[in-house]
Design goal:
Elements (H helix, E strand, L loop, with lengths): L1 H18 L5 H15 L4 H27 L15 E9 L4 E6 L2 E7 L5 E2 L4 E8 L2 E6 L1
Parallel strand pairs: 3-6
Antiparallel strand pairs: 1-2, 1-4, 1-5, 2-3, 5-6
Helix pairs in contact: 1-2, 2-3
């Protein structure tokens, strides 16, 4: 089993290096723990338990921290930068009539309200909640 755990460690590390996105490093840590348990002479059940427990602990406790600090410099681009923005409606937003437009950063967008019953008039302000296809979903401010 030592060879299996070593092979898994290598595979997970190669995948991690290839993707550079913190995808499988946690599994490599779990495989390392299972290898240690195997070297201590414990059975396959203990090895698998060590693999699962250590992988879960690493994912649960260190992944959020790593994502926060390693991706802190990422810049939101394209539509991601629109989420949370306050925008002014240029055309009446009515989901039932399928109308609504706003100009954001010089580009005209189709706008829909979060709830079908909400109506936003030209000049009203809304906050972009999400982007669905080419439509901004907003809530009235």
């Amino acid at each position: 089993m030592s060879i299996v755990w070593l092979a898994l460690i290598v595979i997970f590390l190669v995948v991690e290096i290839a993707t550079v996105g913190l995808t499988s490093i946690w599994l490599a840590g779990g495989a390392l723990a299972a290898l240690v348990v195997e070297l201590l002479g414990l059975g396959i059940v203990w090895q698998i338990a060590a693999f699962l427990i250590v992988t879960f602990i690493l994912l649960y406790f260190t992944r959020p921290w790593a994502q926060k600090y390693l991706n802190a410099k990422s810049v939101k681009t394209n539509y991601e930068s629109l989420i949370g923005q306050k925008i002014k409606m240029t055309e009446r937003v009515d989901n039932l009539s399928q109308t609504g437009k706003a100009v954001v950063n010089g580009q005209e967008w189709t706008v829909r309200a979060e709830a079908d019953g909400d109506i936003l008039e030209p000049g009203d302000f809304g906050e972009v909640l999400r982007v669905e296809g080419v439509k901004l979903i907003v809530k009235k401010i």
